[in-house]
Every structure is written in structure tokens, then in C-alpha cells.
Amino acid sequence: LCNVDNKIEEKPLKRIGNCLGTAWFTHANQCLKAAQDCGLYEKCGALRSEYVLACTKPIPGTSRCSQYKCHRALRRFLERVPEEYSLGVLFCPCTNTLCGERRRKTIVPSCSYQDAEGLQPNCLHQQSFCRRDDLCRSRLADFLSNCQPSTLTASGCLKDSTGLCLRAYAGLIGTIMTPNYISNSSADVSLWCNCEGSGNQWQECLKLQRLFTHNSCLRESPNLQQNQAQCERPSAEADWGSRRQKQT
Amino acid sequence: MTTFLKVLVLLFCIAKGEGHWLRSLIVRTRRSAPDSQCSLRSILLQVRDLGLGYNSDETVLFKYCSGTCPRARSNHDLTLSNLLLSGLLPHPTPGELWHNTPCCRPTHYEDIAFLDNSHRWHKVEKLSAAGCSCVD
């Protein structure tokens, strides 16, 4: 019996990916291109498939997904995949609705963002649930700190760094306070919550909502530019790294 | 001068196969195995090219196993080959292929997921090979 020890060396094929994108498509859909670049880098493709599977698989006996598992897999994706790929897929720039719709669907919002019955919690309630969870609390704190808008700085951010804000926003994805794009024709984002039943905390609730819907710091965050490096002619077959052979 | 002669003799032995242990040492230090051996290969494809009927522009890295397996002959394999050669067993018809050597097959698989052109997520279970081995 012979066995081949499979040590697959991962080669980020980003450069080749960009070339394939250039060769086959006219960049009309930046989000598609970002997805393709992700697919070329094995780690990104594999973890992306993992979260999609986690977010589309129904709980046995029901037709609903497991939001808990979906969120966990989303967090894994964002934590383990290099930013150039993960943030590229989340924040791809769009000029048409096809691109916008793909961008909106990236985090499988039917599971990770929306509620199964379509009900929205109160934003302040959502925030207090978040604060009770260690991870969500820290991610929220990062977001509030790094995405604090300011009218005095050029970047629109108090911390004068839009990169930090983008990362902090991405940190919320996969938590109780997961935000998402709300339309395929704009880059507007929002939490899945409303301010009904806020009582005398109405203003506070609106303020929280507006941190997502009307945030100059978040809006000014740069969309990641893909590197248009030199193009090599991509080979149809790529042999994966070195393999050690054991003989029994 | 004597060192030079010794080296020459050593090289001669290696060439002849007498220095078997030396040759195996040299072979071990060479890095990669020849390409034709059973190993994991990959090809970049568009999802539509997979032939499964999906309408998506996304690309996937499809991995598969191919290559030759060393002929680790069990008694069964040896006998089967002998019988084939001697004609005691009829040659298999094109439809019923059988093997008399181990073959290169995946040991486990990976699922993939992608968004189709109608913006629906799809998953295909066990699409790609995740590891290869020569199975008996």
C-alpha cells in the first residue's frame, strides 16, 4: 500500500487572479472580481465556502438556518483570511445593481443579518444584548471608538484613520450587532433593528442607528483597491507545492 | 591525488549501483518527486465549466487526483495479471474495466459554495479532492 503525504503548499495566486479578471471580464463587477480573487487563494475560498455552508444549512427538522453557527463561521473567515481578500470581498466598490446585489448578499444576510420571521429588535435592546457578550462588547467598543465621526478632520473620522474604522466595522460582522448593506443601489449600511418602543430613549436609539446610516467616517472609508500588478500568462493547471512521499 | 582517485572510484560505484546506500542518500536530498506520481492536482475553472448546470461567473479551484501508483503487487494483483496474460481470463470489455494495480484516488473531499448570477448561494458537497492516496 502506498501513501502520499499531502502537504499542500498554499500559494496566494492574487497576481494570477487579477490577470484572469482582466483577461475574462471588464471589471464591470468589482465584487465578482473580489470573489474570484478569493477563490484563487485557497484559504480564502475554503473559509468562504465554510461560512456559506454554515449559513445555508438548515437546522435538522426546521427550515431555518443556525444563526449561531453562521456567525461563528463568518468570524472565522474574517479572522483567518488575510485582509486583502476578506475586506476586498466585503467592501468591493460598486457602480451597478448587479454588483451591489452581490455585495449585499456576501454575508448571507438571510441568515446572519435578518431574523427568520423578519422581525427587528429594538436597537437599544440589541445593543444591551451585545454588551452582555464579551466578544460583541469589545467589538462594539472598537467600532464606537474608531468610527467616531467628526466634522473637523479631512477624513471625517475623529481618529483620522478610515482604515481603522473599516476594520472595526468588519469586526462587528458575525456578532449580535451585525450590520449590512441595505440596498443594491447604494453603499448604505444599517443594523437590523428599529427604534419602535424606545419610549423616552428615542433620541438615544436614533443616535445609535445613525452611527451606521449617517456616519461620515464610515462613508468616507476607502474601498480597497486591488493591485493591478503585471500580468503573467496563467497556466491552466497549477501543481500544488511540494509533496513528501512516504514509502511503506 | 589519492583523494581524487577515491572520489573517482566512489562515483564509479554509484554509477554502477554498488554504492546503493549512497545513491539513496543523494536521491533523498533531491526535493520533489517526479510529476507523474499520484498527487493532488488543481485546475482553475469557472463554475459554469464544471458541467453541473450552474450559471455563475465565479471561479473555483477544482482539485483532483491523478498519477501513477507504484505497482505494489499483492498476490491477488500478480495472479490477476498472469491470468490476463495467459488468456485464462477474458479481456475486460470496454464497459467493465477492472484494475490490477492500486489506483490514485481522493482520500477525502471538500465542499464549495458560490453565488450564481441570480444572486443565489449554492453549495456543492464533496466537489474537490482534499487529499490523494494510492488505494488497493
Automatic annotation (TrEMBL), chain A:
<keyword id="KW-0732">Signal</keyword>
<dbReference type="GO" id="GO:0043235">
    <property type="term" value="C:receptor complex"/>
</dbReference>
<dbReference type="GO" id="GO:0007399">
    <property type="term" value="P:nervous system development"/>
</dbReference>
<dbReference type="GO" id="GO:0014707">
    <property type="term" value="P:branchiomeric skeletal muscle development"/>
</dbReference>
<protein>
    <submittedName>
        <fullName>GDNF family receptor alpha 3</fullName>
    </submittedName>
</protein>
<keyword id="KW-0336">GPI-anchor</keyword>
<dbReference type="InterPro" id="IPR037193">
    <property type="entry name" value="GDNF_alpha"/>
</dbReference>
<feature type="domain" description="GDNF/GAS1">
    <location>
        <begin position="123"/>
        <end position="217"/>
    </location>
</feature>
<comment type="similarity">
    <text>Belongs to the GDNFR family.</text>
</comment>
<dbReference type="Pfam" id="PF02351">
    <property type="entry name" value="GDNF"/>
</dbReference>
<feature type="domain" description="GDNF/GAS1">
    <location>
        <begin position="31"/>
        <end position="111"/>
    </location>
</feature>
<dbReference type="InterPro" id="IPR016017">
    <property type="entry name" value="GDNF/GAS1"/>
</dbReference>
<dbReference type="GO" id="GO:0038023">
    <property type="term" value="F:signaling receptor activity"/>
</dbReference>
<dbReference type="GO" id="GO:0009897">
    <property type="term" value="C:external side of plasma membrane"/>
</dbReference>
<dbReference type="InterPro" id="IPR003438">
    <property type="entry name" value="GDNF_rcpt"/>
</dbReference>
<dbReference type="GO" id="GO:0007169">
    <property type="term" value="P:cell surface receptor protein tyrosine kinase signaling pathway"/>
</dbReference>
<keyword id="KW-0325">Glycoprotein</keyword>
<keyword id="KW-0449">Lipoprotein</keyword>
<keyword id="KW-0472">Membrane</keyword>
<keyword id="KW-0675">Receptor</keyword>
<keyword id="KW-1003">Cell membrane</keyword>
<feature type="region of interest" description="Disordered">
    <location>
        <begin position="228"/>
        <end position="248"/>
    </location>
</feature>
UniProtKB/TrEMBL annotation, chain B:
<keyword id="KW-0964">Secreted</keyword>
<dbReference type="GO" id="GO:0030116">
    <property type="term" value="F:glial cell-derived neurotrophic factor receptor binding"/>
</dbReference>
<keyword id="KW-0339">Growth factor</keyword>
<dbReference type="GO" id="GO:0005576">
    <property type="term" value="C:extracellular region"/>
</dbReference>
<comment type="subunit">
    <text>Homodimer; disulfide-linked. Interacts with GFRA3 coreceptor and RET: forms a 2:2:2 ternary complex composed of ARTN ligand, GFRA3 and RET receptor.</text>
</comment>
<dbReference type="GO" id="GO:0030971">
    <property type="term" value="F:receptor tyrosine kinase binding"/>
</dbReference>
<keyword id="KW-0732">Signal</keyword>
<comment type="similarity">
    <text>Belongs to the TGF-beta family. GDNF subfamily.</text>
</comment>
<protein>
    <recommendedName>
        <fullName>Artemin</fullName>
    </recommendedName>
</protein>
<dbReference type="GO" id="GO:0007399">
    <property type="term" value="P:nervous system development"/>
</dbReference>
<dbReference type="Pfam" id="PF00019">
    <property type="entry name" value="TGF_beta"/>
</dbReference>
<dbReference type="GO" id="GO:0008083">
    <property type="term" value="F:growth factor activity"/>
</dbReference>
<keyword id="KW-0325">Glycoprotein</keyword>
<feature type="domain" description="TGF-beta family profile">
    <location>
        <begin position="28"/>
        <end position="135"/>
    </location>
</feature>
<comment type="function">
    <text>Growth factor that supports the survival of sensory and sympathetic peripheral neurons in culture and also supports the survival of dopaminergic neurons of the ventral mid-brain. Acts by binding to its coreceptor, GFRA3, leading to autophosphorylation and activation of the RET receptor. Strong attractant of gut hematopoietic cells thus promoting the formation Peyer's patch-like structures, a major component of the gut-associated lymphoid tissue.</text>
</comment>
<keyword id="KW-1015">Disulfide bond</keyword>
<dbReference type="InterPro" id="IPR029034">
    <property type="entry name" value="Cystine-knot_cytokine"/>
</dbReference>
<feature type="signal peptide">
    <location>
        <begin position="1"/>
        <end position="19"/>
    </location>
</feature>
<dbReference type="InterPro" id="IPR001839">
    <property type="entry name" value="TGF-b_C"/>
</dbReference>
<dbReference type="InterPro" id="IPR043401">
    <property type="entry name" value="GDNF_fam"/>
</dbReference>
